[in-house]
Amino acid sequence: MDSEQFAKYLELIDHPVQLPLSPDVTCLYFLYREHVTRFPYQNLDLYLGKPRVDLSISALLETLPISGGHCFQHSELMFAVLEHVGFTVERVAAWVLMGNQYQEGMPLNHNIILVKIGADTYLCDPGLASASPRFPIKLNMESTNEVTISEGDMYKLEVQDKFYQLHWMMKDSYLLMYRFERSSSTGWAKTSDRESTLELCKNVYEGPGVIPIRDKYVKIALQTQDSKIDFFFNDGSYSLKIFSKGRPREERSLDCMQFFQLVKEMCNLEFEATEIVKK
User: Fold this and answer.
1) Rounded distance between C-alpha atoms, residue 59 and residue 39, angstroms
2) Hey, which of 17, 47, 80, 160 has its CA 20 to 30 A from 9?
3) What secondary structure, in 3-state letters, does 165-180 show?
4) Residue 245 pLDDT
5) How far apart are the C-alpha atoms of 175 and 168, rounded to whole Å?
6) pLDDT surpasses 90 at 79
7) Listing from the earlier edge strand, what are the strands of the sheet with 145-150?
8) What is the pLDDT of residue 246?
9) What is the pLDDT of residues 91-129, one digit of tens each?
10) Residues 6+ apart with CB under 8 A from 253
11) Which residues, at least 6 apart from 278, have a Cβ–Cβ distance to it below 8 Å?
């Protein structure tokens, strides 16, 4: 990311002109919140079989504000921004599980971001739809720990010799969100790079087997200052949920026209309002 692209990003998130940015905790939280409340998540294009997205910074700055995007689009743009500001930041590939158990041989299908500030590590995940944390999560990478980041948002990082698993408190019990590798040589998360990320993204579009965000469901989501908006299509049914402080505040079934009209009104995304075909 160059200076011109960075300036465009700050304009897109409406960052205060008089507020300088530096690689510290306050700015990390500020940038993350501005990102997740500005750019929607959507995997509709992936589900519909549209061409693989361009993960170049110039393309992301053009597409995310207008069309939203999936995890690799969000994480690559946020990675570039944090790196430009001067943060020590790493990509980490993960297996999204969302309540399922890890099975040997499962393909990696997600990227998260780990940021180091001094001796502290912060997990940022702007691209997991309504499951994205509302704020960066400060974690102890050495032993299993529970963290509350805001009212109703509690997480547990399970630390094992060869892997980490992140759990999210949902309805009074923990939901296993995803798993990522732990390096035997560093004792920290196994990091990834740009080339590996491009290959992971390619596999999500072209890989064999069932990939849920490509083959099973559609999610369109956006965070606000006090809630998470979650549009969901699965097995021929459309729904809307709004979460606040970790609890459902509103939940209703929709028809196709209502679904896309509300997506336009609440997420500022406009799609052709045609029935989504159940796969």
Assistant:
1) 14
2) 47
3) EEEEEECCEEEEEEEE
4) 87
5) 5
6) yes
7) 137-139, 120-124, 110-117, 88-96, 173-181, 163-170, 153-159, 145-150
8) 83
9) 999 999 999 999 999 999 999 999 999 999 999 999 999
10) 237, 238, 239
11) 235, 236
Say if CB 180 and CB 163 are below 8 A apart.
Answer: yes
Q: In this structure, are residues 214 and 207 in contact, taking their beta carbons and an 8 Å threshold?
A: no
Structure token pair of residue 2 = 């160059």
Looking at the predicted structure, is the pLDDT value of residue 279 above 90? no
With a cut of 90, say whether residue 229 has pLDDT above it.
yes
Two tokens, residue 118: 């001094």
Rounded-to-integer distance, Cα 242 and Cα 229, Å: 5
Among 90, 63, 62, CA closest to 75:
90
**Which pLDDT tens digit goes with each residue over 121-135?**
999 999 999 999 999
180 burial via Cβ count (<10 Å: 0-12, 13-18, 19+): buried
Write the burial class of residue 131 (CB in 10 Å: 0-12 exposed, 13-18 middle, 19+ buried). Answer: buried
Print burial letters for 20-51: b (CB count within 10 Å at least 16), e (below 16): ebebeeebbebbbbbbbebbbbbbbbbbeeee
Q: Locate 174 and state its tokens.
A: 């923990």
pLDDT-based confidence at residue 76 (cuts at 50, 70, 90): very high
